[in-house]
Amino acid sequence: MTSGLSIAGVGYRYGPREALVDIALEVPAGRFCALLGPNGAGKSTLFALLTRLFTTPSGRIVVAGHDLSQAPLAALARMGVVFQQPTLDADLTVRRNLLYFAALHGIDGREAEKRATEALDRLGMAERAGEKVRALNGGHRRRMELARALIHRPAVLLLDEPTVGLDAASRAAITDHVHTLAADGMAVLWATHLTDEVRDDDDLAILHRGRMLAQGRAGDLRGDQPLREMFLKMTAEGAA
Ligand SMILES: Nc1ncnc2c1ncn2[C@@H]1O[C@H](COP(=O)(O)OP(=O)(O)OP(=O)(O)O)[C@@H](O)[C@H]1O
């Protein structure tokens, strides 16, 4: 039983096309795990399985001790997700969006107000609480997506390419913040195709054409070569 995320023997196919084959991954509480894969590796399919958009015909997914197929509500209640696509209502204010998502998790009244204020403070967004999401720049919208995903205090945080379209400063702010969340005890799975988002101390899982090619501490896996070089070699056409 783990308080983080545990994936074992998970597979998925779209008709005859195998999108994921026998995937196993452990993300313990307090760890940041980068799921690195080129386009088409299967990252989005894995996220669809983790969030129960799809159900897996094989294998087991456990979120904070809850089996996703046997106890989906308990498992999903312990999970926060930052999707690739925006999930905020652009016509509502920043604060109203957070209160709305809190209500979806059964949190309302003073507790919801408190959590929204906390989330906005933590992400440096307090003075924007009354603005409509439509008025925010891309970096602030991403921070809001993150605040939304954290409102119910999940044990496991999933992020699907959360820095797409952001400038360097916004990318760094989000990446740093999520590392802090992991250091504070959350289990984080961060899907990306960008090697420069991975730190040596992170756990790293490399996914390519639906298979796990390598797993371990990022610094150990790359050895003396830059991660980018190793990743490109490993996932080059014809490789593996
Ligand atoms: N609805 C679908 N029908 C058939 N094949 C699909 C479908 N969705 C994805 N695939 C295929 O499954 C494989 C994995 O796709 P997936 O979208 O999970 O990869 P990804 O790593 O998220 O890539 P990207 O970064 O481009 O989103 C790819 O070969 C893709 O073409």
Automatic annotation (TrEMBL):
Pfam families attached to this UniProt entry: ABC_tran
InterPro entries recorded: AAA+_ATPase, ABC_transporter-like_ATP-bd, ABC_transporter_ATP-binding, ABC_transprt_ATP-bd_su_PQQ, P-loop_NTPase
Domain ABC transporter: 5-234
Signal peptide: none
One term of GO molecular function: ATP binding
SUPFAM superfamilies: P-loop containing nucleoside triphosphate hydrolases
Entry keywords, A to Z: ATP-binding, Nodulation, Nucleotide-binding, Transport
Record has Transport as a keyword: yes
SMART domains from the UniProt entry: AAA
The keyword GTP-binding appears for this protein: no
Family per similarity comment: Belongs to the ABC transporter superfamily.
Classification via PANTHER family: ABC TRANSPORTER ATP-BINDING PROTEIN, ABC TRANSPORTER ATP-BINDING PROTEIN NATA
Identification of the protein by name: ABC transporter ATP-binding protein
Native source organism of the sequence: Fuscovulum ytuae
